[in-house]
Amino acid sequence: MKAAADGFPIVGDQAKELGVRVPPNPHADIDVDSTSNLVVWNGKGMSVVENWRLLAPHLIPVRLSAVVPKAKGLGNLRCYRLGDGAFASGFVADGLKLVLKSGSTMTGNIVPITSVTVAEFQSDLATTRTLWVEDET
Amino acid sequence: MNDTPGKFFANPAFCEYIFLLVEIERLIREGRNDDPEGEAIYEEMDGPGDKLDDAEMEAVGQFAGDLTRMSDRYRSILLPTEKLARPSPDTTTCDLAPVVNQPMNSRGLGQTDTTRELIP
Questions:
Q1: In the predicted structure, residue A52 carries a pLDDT above the cut 60
Q2: What is the pTM of this model?
Q3: Least CB-CB distance to A27: which of B21, B43, B68?
Q4: Closest by CA position to A54, among listed A103, A93, A108
C-alpha cells in the first residue's frame, strides 16, 4: 500500500490505499446495491494475501527485487502485515472479517461482517490503519 | 507450463497481465515506471491480476523474476524494443509474436551471442 508521512497506510478509495475502490471505478473491489446503497455481501472486498511475497508482481515495490526477483511495483509502495493470527477465514477487526478466495488458502478479501453502507465499510477499514505494521522481511 | 482450456495463454486475463508486465518492464528499464504512464499501467494490472488463479499467478511471478534476472544483453535480444500491440479482449488468443520473433530477428541481424554470453 501507499504510505503516509507517519508510516501507516494511506486511507482512501483508490488503488493501493487502505480502503476499497467502489463503482463506477472500473476496477471496483466491491459491488454496491443500487437500491439500498449497501455493500453487496458476495465475498468481494479488500484483497489481502498470507505473505507479502505472494503478492502479484506489480504490487511488490521494485526496490525489493533483490529479495524477491518478481517485484515490479512502484518503488514507494510498502508491504504491511495486519496482526499475527493464522491466515484463515474469520474475525479480523471491528466490523470486518477475512474470507478466503475460492480454491485458495493464501489469498482472501477483507469484507464486512454484516450489511453496511460503503461509508461504514470504508470507515471500518480506516479504523485499522494503525494496526498495520510494515513487514518486508 | 501446461495449457488447459481457459487457463494460462487461453485466459485473456493472463495474456493481458503478461502484456502489461512487459510494458512495465520496459518503463522500469527506462526509469519511467513511476510517471503517469507507468501509474496507469499499474492500475490497469489490477484487473487481470485479480482474475488469475494460484497457478497462473505463480507463472507470471516466475516470468517477472526471469525479466529481473536476465542480463541486459539477453533482455535486449529477447524483449521487443517497441511497444507491443495489446492482446484483444474479445478472443482467447494472445499475440505475443513480437516477443517470440525477437530472437529470430536478432539472429538475422547478426546480434546473436553464445549461450555463455547470455547467462547473467
A1: yes
A2: 0.83
A3: B43
A4: A108
> Is residue B54's pLDDT more than 70?
yes
User: Looking at the domain assignment, is residue B31 inside a domain?
Assistant: yes
Arithmetic mean of pLDDT over chain B: 77
Nearest chain A residue to B64, by CA: A70
* Domain annotation covers residue B76: yes
The nearest CA of chain A is from the CA of B65 a distance in Å of: 4
- The answer to whether A58 faces chain B, any CB pair under 8 Å, is yes
B-chain CB neighbours of A58 within 8 Å are 20-21, 24, 42, 45-46, 49
Residue at B29 is within a domain: yes
- Domain annotation covers residue B3: no
Stretch A8-15: mean pLDDT, rounded?
Answer: 96
Cβ within 8 Å, pair B43-A15? yes
Q: How many domains is chain B built from?
A: 1
AA letter at B96? L
What do you get for the CA distance between the two ends of chain B, in Å? Answer: 23
Q: Of the candidates A25, A26, A19, which has an alpha carbon nearest to the alpha carbon of residue A4? A: A19
Q: Is B33 in the A-facing interface, judged by CB distances under 8 Å? A: yes
Which residue(s) pair with A49 in the sheet? A107
What is the domain range of residue B37? 8-118
CB spacing of A69 vs B65 below 8 angstroms: yes
**SS3 state of residue A1:** coil
> ipTM score here?
0.86
Q: How far is C-alpha B92 from the geometric centre of its chain's CA atoms? A: 17
